[in-house]
Amino acid sequence: FGVNPGEFVSFTNSTVNGNTYSWDYGDNSSLDTAENPSHAYPGTAVYPITLVGISVFGCLDSIAKSVDVQTPSVDIGIFELTMECEPEIIETITVNIINLGSRELTSLDLFVRVEGGNPIREHWTGFLGPQNQESYTFNVAFPVNSGLSVNYVCVWAENPNNTIDIDLSNNEVCLACNNDFTKDLTGKCIQTGTLQ
């Protein structure tokens, strides 16, 4: 699992019939004899962790795992924009969000804009762990006046966790609109686009 430098990690000991314990955190710190300790790592690396349990009869058992200590990063990716387009309305605008960083995301500003229009902001809150993704559907529809055409729709993300995103190049996706729509099973016209 991954943590950040200086962040305390809690360890849970599931040893059966253990009497004394010895934790080696793999970072040259002193051995820890607590049953369920916590420990903060000094820097980034993959650290081997070893727990040795000793029973009242002197029997030893051990387990080894590792912890990946990383520099914290926030990076949101936006991809696969879909929307339903009827002759006079663009609606059900959905985008996939992926957390490409090392920190969980709990808030995010999402924007949608059609050609010639002002952006509309919606605020997402929830929990999106590192490398996880989810879909988001905007609560908005754009009327399209007769005789006017909309050539594109763009969606982008800002302010993940109210902080700076380390890679802005993957925060926006635009979908070109044309008259070559695909119909779904309900007869609605759908266009799908990916990162451009």
Q: Quick one: overall form?
A: elongated
The main pleated sheet reads as: 6 strands, antiparallel
SS element count, helices: 0
* Order of helical and strand elements: EEEEEEEEEEEEEEEE
Strand content: over 45%
The helix fraction, in percent, is under 10%
**Sheet/helix structural class:** mainly beta
Query: What is the CA–CA distance across the termini?
Result: 33 Å
Chain-averaged pLDDT: 85
Oligomer: single chain
Rg, please? Answer: 25 Å
Number of strands: 16
Low-confidence parts: 179-191
Could you write a compact summary of the structure shown?
The chain is mainly β and 196 residues long. The protein has no helices and 16 strands.
Protein traits:
6-stranded antiparallel beta sheet; 0% helix; 4-stranded mixed beta sheet; mainly beta; 196 residues
Structure overview:
This protein is mainly beta and 196 residues long. It is 0% helix and 51% strand. The chain contains no helices and 16 strands. Strands 7, 8, 11, 12, 15 and 16 form a six-stranded antiparallel β-sheet that branches. Strand 7 (76-86) and strand 8 (89-99) form a beta hairpin. It starts with a strand and ends with a strand. Residues 179-191 have low confidence and may be disordered.
Give me the secondary-structure topology.
Layout (H helix, E strand, L loop, with lengths): L1 E2 L4 E3 L9 E5 L13 E3 L4 E10 L5 E10 L6 E11 L2 E11 L5 E10 L5 E9 L4 E5 L4 E2 L8 E7 L13 E5 L5 E2 L5 E5 L3
Parallel strand pairs: 1-6
Antiparallel strand pairs: 2-4, 3-5, 5-6, 7-8, 7-16, 8-11, 8-12, 9-10, 9-13, 13-14, 15-16
